[in-house]
Design goal:
The structure holds two protein chains of two kinds. By secondary structure, chain A is α/β, with parallel strands linked by helices. Helix content of chain A is 44%, strand content 28%. Chain A is globular and about 35 Å long. Chain B is built from ten helices and four strands, in the order ααββαααββααααα. Chain B has a two-stranded antiparallel ribbon. In chain B, strands 3-4 form a two-stranded antiparallel ribbon. The chains are: A alpha/beta, B mainly alpha. Chains A and B meet through helix 1, helix 2 and helix 3 of A and strand 1, helix 9 and helix 10 of B.
């Protein structure tokens, strides 16, 4: 899986591209956690899921752990533009209905939500 | 800042925590532990723990025919974990056909009694519980499992309560523990009826945020519905 970081005014957009399975989960979690603790800080995180074509159970744990860590760091977090496959996984697992993650349709809507 | 570490492997496993929650203050086993929900919950706890330990994973595969999408269990590695209950489940899953979590839950449910025994044996070997023979009405033998110090059980209850009564986000493991304990009726052991009613929405919000746990819950719901229909049929 590829992780692409794009610094925008007021938010860091992190695009997760490809498969978030058990093999990719540990590295993805480390990189995302590193963003939360980097010296320059992070105002807000927007996860761009438009090219996240596969999420397994292990991948979902990355999102839950990220939500927990972002809340502990008082960093606004939004998941945006989920690929249909990922959106289906979020729906089946209860993530879509739980208020734990702020899920938006587009990256721009996600950025607007965290910079408002 | 308290950062979560991965992998999310607690000191004691999910199945051990679920069994601990089923032990009442006097060491007897909660009556709800006799229900299919608890047995299937024990199976589910083993499956999720195996996912946390990198032996299994799960994903959603497209619908076949008229059925909806299915959550399929995947074997990543078959090396034993060293925990008998987990390894019993892993051996069966690794040797069996690839099938959905719902199907594996049903298939492994007949082994739930063995899994509970293996988990209790391990808790006893670790000095967390004792095993004592007790007598009911001075005649009928039963077994009790008094908790020795109670630290692990208290910690589990405190973590669950902290999530349910506050706004903390659970760890993946605690989310599953909350969901499976709720559907198994075990939260009644330390939360009052009125608290549980008040927390119903919160339990749904934070419990079983996991593909495998959701599949197990679906299996439990289908089993409960099947048994309810079976009871009604003779009267119709």
């Amino acid at each position: 899986m590829e992780i692409v970081i794009d610094e925008r005014p007021g938010a860091t957009v992190v695009a997760l591209k490809g498969r978030l399975d058990f093999e990719a989960a540990a590295a993805a979690q480390s990189q995302l956690q590193a963003l939360l603790v980097r010296p320059e800080g992070v105002h807000a995180l927007v996860i761009d899921g438009s090219e996240l074509s596969y999420v397994s159970s292990a991948g979902l744990r990355v999102f839950l752990t990220l939500a927990k860590d972002a809340k502990a760091a008082s960093t606004p977090l939004v998941v945006a533009a989920l690929h249909p496959s990922a959106a289906e996984v979020f729906e089946i697992s209860g993530f879509a209905q739980a208020k734990i993650l702020d899920i938006r349709d587009t990256v721009d809507a996600g950025i607007a939500a965290v910079t408002a | 800042m308290n950062m979560s570490l991965t992998p999310d492997v607690p000191g004691i496993s999910l199945v051990e925590e679920l069994c601990l929650l089923a032990i009442e203050d006097d060491g007897s086993v909660a009556s709800t532990a006799g229900e299919p929900a608890f047995g299937m919950g024990v199976v589910g706890a083993c499956l999720v723990e195996l996912c946390l330990r990198g032996r299994l994973d799960a994903d959603v595969q497209p619908a076949e025919g008229e059925g909806g999408p299915r959550t399929m269990l995947l074997v990543l590695a078959s090396e034993p974990t060293g925990e008998p209950a987990l390894d019993e489940v892993l051996t069966q899953v690794a040797a069996g056909p690839q099938q959905a979590v719902v199907e594996w839950t049903r298939a492994l449910f007949p082994h739930a009694g063995i899994l509970v025994k293996l988990a209790l044996d391990r808790l006893q070997a670790r000095g967390i519980i004792e095993s004592r023979e007790a007598r009911f009405l001075w005649v009928l033998k039963s077994r009790k499992y008094p908790v020795i110090e109670g630290r692990e059980l208290q910690e589990a209850k405190l973590r669950i309560s902290a999530v349910l009564l506050g706004d903390a986000i659970p760890t993946p493991s605690d989310s599953v523990l909350i969901g499976l304990a709720s559907i198994s009726g075990l939260l009644r052991g330390f939360l009052s009826g009125s608290e549980l009613r008040r927390l119903e929405e919160r339990i749904l919000e934070v419990g079983s945020l996991d593909l495998v746990a959701r599949g197990v819950e679906r299996a439990i719901e289908e089993e409960v519905a099947f048994r309810a229909r079976a009871m009604m049929v003779p009267h119709m």
